[in-house]
Each structure stands twice: as C-alpha cells, then as structure tokens.
Amino acid sequence: MKVHFVKSDPLKIKTDCLIIGVLENQKLSRVARTIDQALKGIISSTIKKKDFQGKLKELFSTYTLGAIEAKSVIFVGLGKKEDLTLEKLRQASGIATKGAKKLKAKKISSLLADTSIKGSDADSVAQASAEGSILSIYEFNEHKTDKEKGKKVEDISFLSHSETPDKGIAQGLKRAKSVCDAVYLARDLITQPGNTATPTFLANEAKKIAAKSTLQCKILNLKDMEKLGMGALIGVTKGSAEPPKFIILEHKGGKKGSAPVVLVGKGLTFDSGGISIKPGQGMEEMKTDMSGGAAVIAAMKAVSALKLKLNVVGLVPASENLPDGKANKPGDVLTAMSGQTIEVINTDAEGRLILADALCYAEKFKPRLVIDIATLTGACVVALGHHASGLMGTDQKLMDSLVVAGEVTGERVWPLPLFEEYDEQIKSDVADMKNIGGRAGGSITAAAMLKKFTGKYPWAHVDIAGTAWTDKAKPYIPKGAAGVGVRLFVQLLRDLGS
Ligand code: BES
Ligand code: MN
Ligand code: ZN
To answer: What are phi and psi of 491, to 5 degrees?
Structure first.
C-alpha cells in the first residue's frame, strides 16, 4: 500500500473516495463547502434535516456521479470542535477509511491531515490522522489461499489544500508512515501462528530487520544462556522442542557511551501453561504471548527509521511454554542469572521467569532506564479490562512520562501500586521467592517478583494482557492483534529526547 502526501485541489483529485471531516454545530469548512456546492448541496441539506450532524465517528457517504473527480465522498463527523483530540481524530479517521474500504475504494484520499486541534501542532495532527487511516485497514492474509485480490486498498493520499506552508504536515505524515509500518510488523508477528512464529522465527525476523536498517542484532542461543546462568529462562524452555533465543537489537543514535534506554519484551511464542496446563478453551489465543516481544522488535525498527538521537537497546527473551517429560514442574527451584532462587509453584507463571533473566541482563548496558512490556497476567484483564495497560514500576518520573505518552498515542497505561507489603505474598519456604502470590493483586505480585531482578536503574513495567489482542474491532484496531506498545514507546523515546 502506498501512502503519500499531495498538494492538490480536492475537486480535481482523481480518487475512488475522498474523506472530509465535519465538525458538529459548526459551519462547513471552506473545502467542505466547495465540495458541497459541486454536489448540489447534498451535505448541507442533510445537515439541515439533521440526518447527519457531524457527531464524532458519524458517517455520510455518497457517490458523486461525475460532479467532481472523486468517485465517492465520505463525510465523517469529528464531534464538537472544543472536544476534539488527537485520539478522536485517529478514531474518526479510522472509521472513515474503513467506510471507504467498504465502498471497495482502492485509492483513498483524505482531507483530515490539516484539521485544527486546540493545543496540538500540525505535525502531530497529520500524524494522528494518517495513523488512524493506515492502522484501521490492516489485514493478515498470509495463510489464506484465497487472497481476496482486488479488494485491497492500494493507495492512501493525504491532501493539503491550505495556502499556509505545510512542512509540519509532511513531517507528521512521514513519521506516521514509519510508525505504522512498525505497528503492522508487530501485528504480523503476533497474528502469525505458533507453529510458524517460533523463537527461531522471531530471531530470524529481528536479524532481517537489522540487515535492512541501521540496527545491530545479536542472538544468544541456549549455550550462551547456560554460560550466563539464565536458569529461570532455561527452566521455562525445558519442556519445549523449539530452542530458545534471546534477541538483542541495538540502535546507536545517541552520543557514544551515553546510557541507553533498554526495552524488554516478553517473547513467549506459545503459552500452554506447561505442566500447570491451561484449559483448552481459548488456548489458541496464547500464540499472542509474544506481543511484548513483538512490540519491542517493532519499536526498534521505528526508532531506527526515525533516526532518533538516542541509544536504545531492545531485549526479547523468546521461548515456548509446553508440558513434557523434561519440563519444569511445580515445586522445582530455579537459579536465575542474578543468583537468586525461585520456587516454581505454577509453571503457567512463566513470563516473570523469562523476564527475570532479561531484566538482569539489561544491567550489562548500564541503562538510563528500563521498561518491560508483557502479556503477563490475566489479573490485569480483570483489573483494567481492554482499554488500558497496567503500569507499575520503581520510578515515578518514568511512570508519569509513560502516562503522558499513553494519552498522546491513545495507548493508555494506568498505574497500579507496588507497595512493599505485596512482597510478603511471594515469600517461599524453600527458595528466595516463589513465582506466584495468590489471586489477590495478581498483576502486582507478578511485578513485585520482577522488581527483585531490576538493577540500579529506573524501571517501569507495562502489562498488556488486556490490550494486546482484541475480540472486537475498535475504530483503528481490527479484530485481533493491536500492536500495542509500539506507538507508546516511540512517543516516549521522542519525548525523552537525546
Ligand atoms: N500469558 C499469561 C497471561 C495472559 C492471560 C495473557 C490472558 C493474556 C491473556 C501468563 O503467562 C499466565 O498464564 N499468567 C497466569 C499467572 C497465574 C498462574 C499466577 C494467569 O494470569 O492466569
Ligand atoms: Mn502463562
Ligand atoms: Zn504467558
């Protein structure tokens, strides 16, 4: 799919569908008025009859029958001017673009990129409008033999019709392209079934991405993990016939020697629960247990494409969690890379085990800060549902920045406390700790275990169990993998600066 920016007269643009924003209770914009006039007042009369009012995400579409060059137009409601935010624009843009796709448009042109939003610059507005459009029509057809050819959107263009200089718009659109490309990558990796997306597959994808970019990639194998004493990660991987991989991606965009930001993503390519096996119903969804890892790999790709001026490291411990004669068992004690011992009460609490060693490994980079992202606990879904990821950590400033980045991107994160009292729940009789802390505060006790493996660095943990996958399509997230975390990380890293 081609995405580009054109400066053109909306009446003369040759396209299958032209998207135009309409604010509620406002006069039509100058460009909307011109189009309305060319279409004999179709939209103004519809508004007069109150059949379309410009309410947020409301759509009105019509064929133009040759009155203008575009074959059809979609008017999309943006709601009240004073209530408009980047996220609302993203959503309206997504709904309109899906509407255009339903009209079988192959070529779509949108006028939303230079909408004005109070408190946001042209650059961010353009980025948000393009993100909404591009992300809304994601599809994954790799394993379908009937590829439904001919129905795909081939080209999306964003038009600017203003006389003012639009350098900001061009920049925002360019950024959206790189970011969406990365989100598409994350969604592909997540949607890919477990028999394809093995740890080896993830490692190879990371290598391919590095080969095509400025990123450096290193993969640790089982032998390397043994040498490092990564007993927690190795414990999880023992029941699987697929070899584990530890993926390291590096972006050296900052000053030589300046402390990097380290991103750590859970790369559990299939979570059956292991010996503490999960019920069959819905288990197929556990192919998505590498969503954190996918977000990190994809964010690294975007960071390199955007040439961010700071040093960033991505770490992805990748493994399966399966039952087998060799698998670790409830009651087993593992020695982690840090030297601490963990009693495995439940083999299904495996994410924290592989992350424990990754967080310890992160210390080697003497990081400025570390953020991990993981589909870690079902308890997080109970606590926050599907509209926010859980946020915990040891550094308030970092957590505050994540909350801000979440608001800007619409990938919201919400804090849960990490009081010392929770540590009591993971005390073990036979080891330094145990890997589960009971039902009460399940997301927090998981984070409390992770905390024991964080070094001296500021640390935050993002639990995406409820946000990584959606059963119901959202305005710009089709049913399935959301690719959550990628835009959050890119935004945070841009905010951090060099
Ligand atoms: N990968 C799961 C968590 C999960 C659940 C992700 C639902 C996405 C949707 C994790 O490894 C897990 O199994 N956690 C257990 C922990 C329990 C055994 C303490 C859980 O949440 O049930
Ligand atoms: Mn599990
Ligand atoms: Zn898991």
So the answer is: -65, -45
pTM (2 d.p.): 0.98
Enumerate the active-site residues: 278, 352
For residue 365, the Cα-to-chain-centroid distance in whole angstroms is 25
**Percent of the chain whose predicted confidence (pLDDT) is above 70:** 98
Ligand in closest contact with the CA of 274: 2
Angle, in degrees to the nearest 10, between helices 351-362 and 442-451: 30
Return the beta strands (E) in 339-451 as ranges. Answer: 341-343, 369-374, 389-393, 413-415, 433-434
In the numeric block, which tokens belong to residue 142? 């790799």
pLDDT over 90 at 7, yes or no: no
Residues 289 and 217 in one domain: yes
Please identify, by atom number, the ligand 1 atom nearest to the C-alpha of residue 346.
Answer: 18
Cα 320 from Cα 346, distance rounded (Å) = 15
Residue 132's CATH number: 3.40.220.10
Identify whether the C-beta of residue 102 lies closer than 8 Å to the C-beta of residue 118. no
* CA–CA gap between residue 130 and residue 132 (Å, rounded): 5
Q: How far is the CA of 348 from the centre of ligand 1 (A)?
A: 7
Q: What share of the chain is helix, strand, coil (3-state, %, to 5)?
A: 40, 20, 40
Place of tokens 């998981």: 446
Q: Half-sphere exposure of residue 346, counting CA atoms within 13 Å on the CB side?
A: 18
User: Within 390-469, where are the H helices?
Assistant: 396-409, 442-451
Q: Which residue, judged by its Cα, is nearest atom 9 of ligand 1?
A: 465
The domain containing residue 115 runs over which residues? 2-160
For residue 228, is it within any domain? yes
